[in-house]
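Hey forum,

I'm writing up a methods section and want to include a predicted complex as supplementary material. The small molecule is uridine-diphosphate-N-acetylglucosamine. I've pasted the protein sequence and the SMILES. Can someone with a working setup run it? I'll credit the forum in the acknowledgements.
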Amino acid sequence: MEEIIINGGHRLQGTVEIDGAKNAILPIMAASLLATEGVTEIDDVPILADVYTMSAVLESLAAEVAFDKNSQKLRIDASKPLNYEAPFELVSQMRASIIVLGALLARLGVAKVAMPGGCAIGSRPIDLHLKGLRQLGARITQNGGYIEARAQKLIGADIYLDFPSVGATENIMLAATLAEGTTFIENAAREPEIVDLAIMLSEMGAHISGAGTETIKIVGVKKLHGISHQVVQDRIEAGTMMVAAAITQGHVLIKNAIGYHNRPLISKLTEMGVKIDERDDGILVEGPEKLRPVNVKTMPHPGFPTDMQPQMTVAQLLADGVSVMNETVFENRFMHMNELRRMNADFEIEGNTLLLHGPADLRGAQVEATDLRAAAALVLAGLVADGETRVGQLQYLDRGYYLLHQKLSLLGADIRRVDIDASGAEHPVLSAI
Ligand SMILES: CC(=O)N[C@H]1[C@@H](OP(=O)(O)OP(=O)(O)OC[C@H]2O[C@@H](n3ccc(=O)[nH]c3=O)[C@H](O)[C@@H]2O)O[C@H](CO)[C@@H](O)[C@@H]1O
Ligand SMILES: C=C(OP(=O)(O)O)C(=O)O
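Reply by user p_vandermeer:
Happy to help. Structure tokens for the complex are below, copy them as they are.
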């Protein structure tokens, strides 16, 4: 059993490097299935459990995948005939595997993918994905826990999404690249990871415009080819580090961080009294002695990201007064708060609204992650808590952060990751995956 152990109270100082984005690499890996010629080579690939899971999904479909951890390069050859079925054992490990549905349908005219379940943060249906694919001409059936989509040919369509779903936008983009004619996705998701996917698809030979706006236009082409692509930086990892600096009175340069990807977070941290300097070499964050309370509402991009909500609640807890967090994207994303209560946090939950009474006098405790960003929030709380915090269930953290403890340790935190054996002895963990 592994744990991260933190002794709080250290100011973070220095420079931190950020990896490629989990939420960009996963759809990019799915997109590589569309290349019938050449191989796809991807740089700056984050070393994450989800990347290994997606590699296994692609291999189950008969793509050849090679991931070199040292150079962080991923090579995918999908040029040979592919299978059309993504099995339950893999899809159930990671919801994002549903994105192979659109790619397989476009490439093979048929796809069978296990229905992804919900997860701790919400039920997460895929009705919008299916609605979009149906509008492109797919016949979709659900049987025995699998979704099967078939189409002799996909035909471009005008698709309006009731909600700007990231995954639905990506699935439809992948399917539409090889459809006959033009597709418009209206009320599309506008996240930077959508833009990165569009860049990659364009490099492969797709005709896409408007990614990053509400309307994406895709003119279908006959075929796509392998390319080299560098994954965009992970704005959520960058944001997590910004909050770490903000709450520890730190002085941290987030190297090469992209300010316009984190505009709402920068705005809210500034309101809290954090000094933020967007420089050519990254974003410099200086935490104040006292944080001011602030109200936050999560929204699809360019609103405040739900994936920064748990981390932000730690900063709000430490602020001098009452702050409000309103979570509008997922229905159950306050699971970390019960763990923070063990650390002496004072708050009330009313539906999807959280009232945080600061300034909290956080005390170290044994806590357990319930999902990926909950894990990050608990580590952040440990950085400022009095005494020792032990964070368990690190498999969630490993989905989205590589060696977070090492990065924080290099900035001056007293933090280590250990494997605890049956006798209770602790062994240092040097490489998480
Ligand atoms: C791998 C990846 O990129 N994951 C991100 C992606 O997840 P994901 O793509 O799953 O998130 P969506 O944008 O699709 O979901 C947002 C909301 O829409 C709902 N919905 C979605 C699809 C659908 O068909 N029907 C429906 O009702 C969901 O239940 C949720 O309440 O965007 C989320 C919202 O920014 C982020 O938290 C995740 O980190
Ligand atoms: C919710 C997240 O990811 P996923 O959609 O992969 O579960 C996340 O990155 O915070």
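Some notes you might quote in the supplement: Residues 22-23, 95-96, 121, 307, 372-373, 400 surround phosphoenolpyruvate (ligand 2) (CB under 6 Å). The chain is about 30% helix and 25% strand.
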